[in-house]
Design a protein that fits this description.
alpha+beta, 5-stranded antiparallel sheet, 3-stranded mixed sheet, 12 helices, 10 strands, globular, SKP1/BTB/POZ_sf, Phosphatase activator
Length: 327
């Protein structure tokens, strides 16, 4: 007669002791509720939700090799998972002032939209839009994420510049490509010159005028219809240490066509045409788009306290990253 205990129907799992169960439980990764980041010597404590709401393009700069939001160290000697409050610090090569700028903008936008403990936000006043017949603003109004989330346009620029000095032979590099003091000084002055050029669209508009690029003109027009202004400047701009590179970022609230009146004197109104324009930018939600172009100009570097003005050829390789974030 067959042993029923070996039947897959009657077979039962062996009894697991409490200590064994505890050990297995401790082997499961524990999700981090907050992260401790060291950005070039400056410490930040950020909760997981804040990190997850950051733009994809910024996250790729912060964590180019990816980020695991769980504790990786497990202490099996005593069956415990270690001290939950023990800090695991992630070293990040990213400008801390830029990170602070992004965090503050996103926090302010979130508080303004969702409200705080003492102040109601815009979202509460927009509830009436979900009750509006869908035919008025297009199909599936209740499924439009721009009604229930705060949308932020994220535009970043990575600018690498290359300076061609005058042909007087004083500025040069050695056989290893190391610049002499004169060349290094010209590079620094070139960086300072570009740092002062804070206008967002000047370089791209110059390229449009030069190449008659209709697609680039359309990009400028779309951004200016969606929240930017043609005279806007970069919200943050800084030279990268030990590199001929300038990083810039601009953040603006997406113009959705929703109008709020002070003190709620009138119901919220929605411009369906502007909303249709805004919805086009949903193509860039979690899908950053990049554009790269070269820009070459003869520029005059301003005189300094101990050096006169200098004309150089300045080449710039610009990489734009456009993205939409919903918080």
């Amino acid at each position: 007669m067959a042993n029923l205990a070996n039947s897959p129907i009657t077979q039962v799992s062996p009894i697991t002791s409490v200590s064994q169960a505890q050990t297995v439980s401790n082997l499961q990764p524990q999700l981090l509720t907050r992260l401790f980041l060291d950005l070039r010597g400056r410490r930040f404590e950020v909760d997981r939700e804040t990190i997850m709401n950051l733009p994809e393009s910024v996250l790729l700069c912060l964590f180019p090799n990816g980020l695991v939001l769980s504790r990786q160290s497990v202490n099996l000697s005593d069956g415990g998972g270690g001290d939950d409050d023990e800090e695991e610090v992630y070293g990040v090569d990213f400008d801390p002032d830029c990170f602070d700028f992004v965090l503050n903008f996103f926090k302010s936008a979130s508080n303004n939209f969702y409200g705080t403990d003492t102040t109601p936000g815009l979202f509460a006043a927009q509830q009436v839009l979900f009750e509006t017949p869908s035919s008025e603003f297009g199909p599936a109004t209740s499924q439009n994420p721009l009604l229930s989330k705060q949308a932020i346009i994220v535009l970043r620029e990575e600018l690498e510049y290359f300076t061609i000095p005058p042909k007087d032979g004083q500025a040069a590099t050695d056989s290893n490509g190391i610049a002499n003091d004169i060349m290094a000084d010209i590079k620094r002055r070139s960086g300072d010159y570009l740092m002062d050029k804070r206008s967002i669209f000047t370089a791209l508009q110059r390229n449009v005028n030069k190449e008659n690029n209709v697609a680039e003109q359309h990009l400028i027009d779309m951004l200016c219809m969606s929240g930017f202004d043609r005279e806007d400047e970069w919200g943050f701009r800084a030279l990268e240490p030990s590199r001929c590179c300038i990083s810039s970022i601009a953040l603006v609230l997406l113009k959705t066509g929703i109008t709020h009146y002070p003190n709620g004197d009138r119901p919220v109104e929605l411009d369906s045409s502007q909303m249709a324009t805004a919805q086009k930018l949903l193509l860039f939600w979690r899908k950053p788009a990049r554009k790269c172009w070269w820009d070459g100009l003869d520029v005059e570097l301003p005189a300094t306290a101990d050096k006169g003005a200098l004309t150089v050829k300045l080449w710039a390789r610009r990489v734009w990253t456009l993205e939409l974030s919903l918080v």
